[in-house]
Design a protein that fits this description.
Blueprint (H helix, E strand, L loop, with lengths): L2 E4 L2 E8 L4 E5 L10 H7 L4 E5 L17 H14 L6 E5 L1 H12 L6 E5 L9 H13 L1 H7 L1 H16 L7 H10 L5 H12 L15 E6 L4 H4 L1 H8 L3 E6 L6 H4 L1 H32 L1
Parallel strand pairs: 3-4, 3-5, 5-6, 6-7, 7-8
Antiparallel strand pairs: 1-2, 2-4
Amino acid sequence: MPTVRTNDIETYYERRGSGPPLVFTHGAILDHSQWTPQMDALSDEYTTYAYDVRGHGRTGGSKRARYSIELFADDLDAFVTALELDRPVLCGLSMGGCIAQVYATRHADRISGLVLADTFTPELLSRSEWLQRSVLLRATVPPVRLIGYERVEKAMVWFQKRLSGEGVSGNYGNIERIRETGPKMETDEFAKAIRALAAFHETAVDLSAITAPTLVLYGEHEPPFLRRHVPKLRSEIPHATVEMVPGAGHASNLDDPAFFTAAIREFLSREVALSAQESAASDAHSDRA
């Protein structure tokens, strides 16, 4: 079982393929296996890494009383450093996208590309979003202690469908299958992860500091509050492009893995490769000067 020391924990990860490094960060209450379709497909050209975020999957929990998105980003930095990855492309979905944003703004020179999928910025753009992201998320913790997060999440999925339509949850069976095969999350770790996500609005993130080419992906049936963050990401990240994943909900990489993976592959071969060529040419010019 491959692990690497990241700060005060042993982080579980999987690696496939060979080529430039591509690091995947999963959503809340899931694990690295969320990225299996993309790792399988892209390992023909890239060295793909997917790891379990602190508190999740085979990484498991820690003695810290509180977690934060900043802490998760520090863990990601320790992961990249420990494995000596040279300017990887980061790909984060939902909570993983929040982690990737923080990392990319604080370590802009350490990545060559960024993919942000089904995610949101720290800013709360409406009162209803504040209720969903802060109040309702925290309110899930007491019932989870009583009946478990699987039942509570199913209730949340039902609520989201009534609020935003049937397509918002995509093919929820994909999420259930991941849960069936992976380790169960401890309730205390669930609480710390959810509270970290609910407090993301307190994090300072300067999107204009992201210098790497960025691809923003979102599902056609994302919750409305989340779709409102797409224009913000596009306008504030200097080199951002946006694509919608047709027919997908909040886990667009699982709802339409073929489209999602093809979008990443095109982005890597076009935007990231071009940026690397321009950087190499600039370095060569500087050396001659």
